TrEMBL record:
This is Protein SCO1/2. It holds the Pfam family SCO1-SenC. It comes from the Bacteria. GO terms for molecular function: metal ion binding. Belongs to the SCO1/2 family. The keyword DNA repair does not apply.
Amino acid sequence: MLNFGLKLHFAKYFKLRTLFVFLYQITFMKSILYKYRKFFGVLLVFSILTIYLFYVALKPSKSLPIFNPADVNPELVDSTVQYISKYHTIADFSFVNQNGKTITQKDYEGKVYVADFFFTTCGSICPKMTTNLVEVQKAIINNPKVMLLSHTVFPETDSVPVLKAYAIKNGVVDSKWNLVTGDKKTIYTMARKSYLAVKLGKPEQLYDMVHTENFVLVDTKRRVRGFYDGTNKEDMKRLIEDINFLCTE
């Protein structure tokens, strides 16, 4: 019975001793931390900053290419400019929009904009392209740096009243989006020499062209920065992301 009592006594002693040592260690560590708190604070900040810098250095930064005629499918580029491999920019232009107003490059000066080619009676890809461009319009409606520009490839039928009716039907916001018409030769030249986005039509018909599903992204320096499938929802997400990127570039 006595041995059992001694064992119980020693067990309590060792538990108390262990607790005392543990509390002492905590107190000692707290005193060390307090004494060297500035050092540990600086070390913590330095560690966080180092990790952040490594993250930034290793994370690939976003960038968009600058397209020149030599970079694009030759079917979409006029033969007279296919050799150009640098310094390509959108040429000056002058067209008439859905409100009968003359639109020039001045109206797009300093803007990021999306250009495309369509016609109002198109029953194939145009309706989907227009629907998707309406969604892009919603995304950029409050961004004063961004505009849209749609050229008809059938100016002989897409007159100002026709374009106006099409604009109203599809919810085009006049301050953000111009639907333009003009001389067919001039539109053809812009399509194949500047925007690099339209195929040749019938060889026997001069300046005949077949528009594509391409949306063309142009930066504030009038450089082509991207091509997007205007019928593809995923490409529209990418286009909106790239528009926002160019606005901060």
